[in-house]
From TrEMBL:
Organism listed in the record: Alteromonas halophila
Record-linked PROSITE patterns: PEPTIDASE_M2, PROKAR_LIPOPROTEIN
Molecular function terms from GO: metallopeptidase activity; peptidyl-dipeptidase activity
Keyword Plastid (UniProt): no
Disulfide topology: C151-C157, C350-C368, C534-C546
Protein name, as recorded: Peptidase M2
Sites where the protein binds Zn(2+) 1: H381, H385, E409
Active site positions: E382 (proton acceptor 2), E382 (proton acceptor 1), H509 (proton donor 1), H509 (proton donor 2)
One of the protein's GO biological processes: proteolysis
Chaperone recorded as keyword: no
């Protein structure tokens, strides 16, 4: 998916394995064990490894694309096979890389060796039977999610896209509950496979010298693996009071609408009422929680409809934002090869993703685009990945990734923060820019998506790290999932969960093995990026009204960071754009301060917390 060293390998690694180390590498190791290894040996090794990996990575990406856009028995077999071959190859090189641990090498060589050792998400064990099994499970889980549906009756089945779109707009509690439960039937059969996969990948991780996969995942951030969770706690601490205020207001309003028997005012919020299948973004229930005072907030969904936007036009519009910043247009092949709509008559993985199949310019997105404002944002999110991929395509393979994985997720979102009323008017989607008296409404709309997401972005991997470290075993998978949902989000299951439920599996990134902390980081980083870019663009107004549309100066500053790829620690990349090497949520506090003040007033006399 998004990046080679990190994504392609990562995604594929979810699926793969088997076989032994490639000929070129074993020769290399023979030659070098007998003599003293040198810095020149390390460089030569990296050169061979990168060329060799690249050669296999491209066909593996084609196999994976074919599977994701046409889920069937054969594409699954080929994708699992290629994934296995590739991750086995990478694991072999990762082991080889450790041979240079004590060799004195320059900074870049050291960084590349370290990246190579860390590059697998679900590392395969050396035993070919086990690696093959790991690969099979990975693609099977992926397919189960992608082809999943909920059948109300034998011939009335609903896809996730269909149910999601109902859940965004319906206020019929019984229907919301039915879909919420229905989608979670899909993940019941995933549980045993998931547990088996954890065991296998942990074996692979140990062979690479990691304690377990949890340590491997936490060790990707240019700081010690055990320090990283503390950094997350610090950032969450900056946002938490805000989230609690939002939660308090939203719960009160939902109580008014659905009754306090459905939404008890001293407990977590039932998860089916927040306008999203996973209660991860709440923007779709704006109408239920909006200020009583009449406020004009642009309705992008209605505007797209009124102007007859189709899927391609939505993507073109998003492309033109990037073009206005000075980024080169997307290649012709992007338009030929991307998947914008759910095709008839075959299963596809609808979860949005962005790809660069040859690591050069074979950029594509894969989405089942809905014609809504929400999806208009997702399109910008995906194109952000594509422009990042293209910006670092000159880097050596091991540097073709984002500074940290949160950066990759933040770029398109940063651009989408510039979809302000001023911008919407400029492109003719609305006629007038609402004045400042409407700001609370507009800030509320954004907060329902961005602030509400943050604890969800954090809790998914709090769960996974425990699972991958073996601290939480299969009997407790679901129980601990809901404990964390309660702890961080103040959200609860609307009904008691059956003993065989595996609710984490109903969220794409769990069966697909995509780490999730990246989205938490992205939600912090995008506000930092937005502020810096607005400063560079010379926009002096409040941050929530700033749009960097048309600012080539801002585009250049952004590109300067993007083209670094992973060549430097993320702290350096962050400093390049923002002047500071620290992730910091105080920009979020500034952005939403007027809303926070407003919420605190609304919440007076309410019992907050859960
Ligand atoms: O998975 C995504 C993107 C693809 S990287 C559509 N996101 C997370 C999700 O949907 O859960 C974007 C925000 C969070
Ligand atoms: Zn993304």
């Amino acid at each position: 998916m998004h990046t080679l060293s990190k994504t392609l390998i990562a995604a594929i690694v979810g699926l793969s394995v088997s076989g032994c180390i490639d000929e070129a590498v074993s020769t290399q190791s023979h030659d070098t064990t007998s003599t003293q290894l040198t810095a020149a040996d390390a460089k030569a090794f990296l050169e061979i490894a990168q060329n060799d990996i690249y050669k296999m990575q491209v066909p593996a990406a084609h196999a994976q694309w074919s599977y994701a856009t046409f889920i069937n028995y054969d594409t699954q077999a080929v994708s699992a096979y290629m994934g296995e071959q590739l991750s086995t190859k990478v694991a072999g090189y990762a082991k080889e890389a450790a041979r240079f641990n004590d060799v004195k090498v320059d900074k870049d060589t050291r960084r590349q060796l370290e990246l190579l050792k860390n590059s697998l998400t679900m590392p395969p064990p050396a035993d070919p039977k086990k690696s093959e099994r790991l690969a099979k499970i990975g693609s099977e889980l992926d397919g189960m999610y992608g082809s999943g549906s909920y059948c109300r009756t034998e011939d009335d089945c609903l896809s996730l896209v269909e149910m999601s779109s109902e859940m965004a707009t319906s206020r019929d509690e019984a229907l919301l509950l039915e879909y919420w439960k229905g989608w979670r039937e899909v993940s019941v059969p995933m549980k045993d496979l998931y547990a088996e996969q954890v065991t296998l990948a942990n074996e692979g991780a140990k062979e690479l010298g990691f304690e377990n996969v949890s340590a491997l995942w936490r060790g990707q951030y240019d700081m010690p693996a055990d320090e990283f969770p503390k950094e997350l706690d610090r950032l969450w601490g900056q946002v938490e009071p805000f989230y609690e205020a939002l939660h308090c207001h939203v719960r009160a309003k939902l109580g008014e609408h659905y009754g306090t028997d459905v939404v008890p005012q001293d407990k977590a919020i039932p998860a089916h009422l927040l306008g999203n299948m996973w209660a991860q973004t709440w923007g779709n229930i704006y109408d239920l929680v909006k200020p009583e005072q009449e406020m004009t907030v642009p309705d992008v969904t209605a505007a797209l409809k009124a102007q007859n936007y189709d899927e391609v036009k939505m993507v073109k519009q998003a492309e033109s934002f990037f073009s206005s910043l000075g980024f080169e247009e997307l290649p012709e092949t992007f338009w030929e090869r991307s998947m914008f709509q759910k095709p008839d008559g075959r299963d596809v993985q609808c979860h949005a993703s962005a790809w660069n199949l040859d690591d050069k310019d074979d950029l594509r997105i894969k989405m089942c685009i809905q014609k809504t404002g929400e999806e208009f944002n997702v399109i910008h999110h995906e194109l952000g990945h594509n422009y990042y991929q293209r910006a670092y395509n000159q880097q050596p393979l091991l540097y073709r990734g984002s500074a940290n994985d949160g950066f990759h997720e933040a770029i398109g979102d940063t651009i989408a923060l510039s979809i302000t009323p001023k911008y919407l008017k400029e492109i003719g989607l609305i006629d007038t820019i609402p004045d400042a008296s409407n700001d609370i409404g507009m800030l509320m709309q954004v907060a329902l998506d961005k602030i509400a997401f943050i604890p969800f972005g954090l809790m998914v991997d709090q769960w996974r790290w425990k699972v991958l470290a073996g601290e939480v075993t299969p009997e407790n998978y679901n129980k601990v999932w809901w404990e964390l949902r309660n702890k961080y989000q103040g959200v609860m299951a609307p009904v008691e969960r059956p003993a065989d439920a595996f609710d984490p599996g109903a969220k794409y990134h769990v069966p697909a093995n995509v780490p999730y902390t990246r989205y938490f980081l992205a939600h912090i980083l995008q506000f930092q990026f937005h502020k810096s870019l607005c400063d560079i663009a010379g926009d002096e107004g409040p941050l929530n009204r700033c749009s960097i549309y048309g600012s080539e100066k801002a585009g250049k500053a952004l590109n300067d960071m993007l083209e670094m790829g992973m060549s430097k620690p993320w702290q350096d990349a962050l400093e390049t754009l923002t002047g500071s090497p620290q992730m910091d949520a105080s920009t979020i506090q500034d952005y939403f301060q007027p809303l926070k003040d407003w919420l605190d007033k609304q919440n007076q006399g309410r019992q907050c917390g859960w």
